[in-house]
Specification:
With about 140 residues, the protein is of the alpha+beta class. The chain has three helices and seven strands. Strands 1-7-6-5-4-3-2 form a seven-stranded antiparallel sheet. The N and C termini lie far apart (about 35 Å).
Length: about 140
């Protein structure tokens, strides 16, 4: 089973400011609760160290991430691969009269039992965390 989640948020800030956050792999990693640590490499890749609270995964898992597509300041797509799952994330930014519409899409293809169920139950909360981190980074209050 593949899990797909899409969330659209309105951020009352210019697109370039939202782009500064969403295009930064360290800031994206820091917004996700199951990411315990990360390393950003000089070649544009990053490693996210993830701890999933599921029975078959009792250790940190390294997700090797990389950007597949980048159209500044409008769109970024990245992938993350590990022994337990493959993830594709997309962030699309559109200017609006009030600021920026940010569309977040994630597809998770689990390789172990329980991984997809975990993400199915928790990706909505992780999208809330991402929105809160963007707002905090920009000095904005929560909606």
């Amino acid at each position: 089973m593949v899990v797909r989640v899409e969330r659209v948020v309105e951020v009352p800030a210019p697109r370039e400011q939202v782009w500064e956050f969403i295009s930064d792999p360290a800031k994206r990693a820091g917004a996700i609760s199951v990411v315990e640590d990360w390393e950003v490499h000089d070649d544009g890749h990053a490693t996210w160290y993830v701890k999933l609270p599921i029975p078959l995964v009792d250790r940190r898992i390294a997700f090797e991430t990389e950007e597949r597509k980048r159209e500044e300041p409008r769109y970024v797509e990245f992938t993350g691969s590990s022994k337990v799952a493959h993830i594709v994330g997309e962030h699309e930014l559109e200017e609006t009269a009030e600021g920026t519409r940010l569309t977040n899409r994630f597809v998770v293809d689990g390789k172990l039992p329980g991984v997809e169920r975990f993400f199915s139950r928790n990706l909505g909360d992780e999208m809330d965390n991402l929105e809160a981190a963007i707002r905090a980074d920009l000095g904005l209050t929560q909606p």
